[in-house]
Amino acid sequence: MTTTSIKKHPSDVIKRPRITEKAAISAEKGKYVFEIFKTATKASVTAAVKELYKVTPVSVNIARTPAKRVMVRGKAGVKQGVIKAYVTLKKGETIELA
């Protein structure tokens, strides 16, 4: 498997910022959470954050949450999995999400 350095548009990498209570607490500490596409890499997320928000990420960690089977009103269903990127910024830099 080879990787190519094709420049992707930021909207092809980052879906949306993840707005949850846990993400808001970590944002106060300089770590922001974004939902990303399946094909995104750490390098592409770093480039997308630089271009979209004009900040410099120190590190990027990617976490995959698997899909889960759920029961809703007696019917079986699937809760879709999500891929998240945790982006740590330099001290003093912030991203205005809302």
What does this structure look like?
The structure is a single chain. This protein has 98 residues and is an alpha+beta fold. It has helices spanning 21-28, 42-53, and strands spanning 14-17, 31-36, 57-65, 68-72, 75-79, 82-89. The protein has a single domain (10-89), classed as Alpha-Beta Plaits, CATH 3.30.70. The chain has two helices and six strands; from the N terminus they run E-H-E-H-E-E-E-E. The strands form two sheets. The chain has a four-stranded antiparallel sheet with strand order 1-2-6-3. Strand 4 and strand 5 (75-79) form a beta hairpin. The radius of gyration is 15 Å and the shape is globular. The mean pLDDT is 90.
Broad structural category? alpha+beta
Task: Give Rg in angstroms.
Answer: 15 Å
Number of domains: 1
> Kindly, what is the distance between the CA atoms of the first and last residues, rounded to a whole number of angstroms?
39 Å
SSE arrangement, N to C: EHEHEEEE
Number of helices: 2
Cα shape: globular
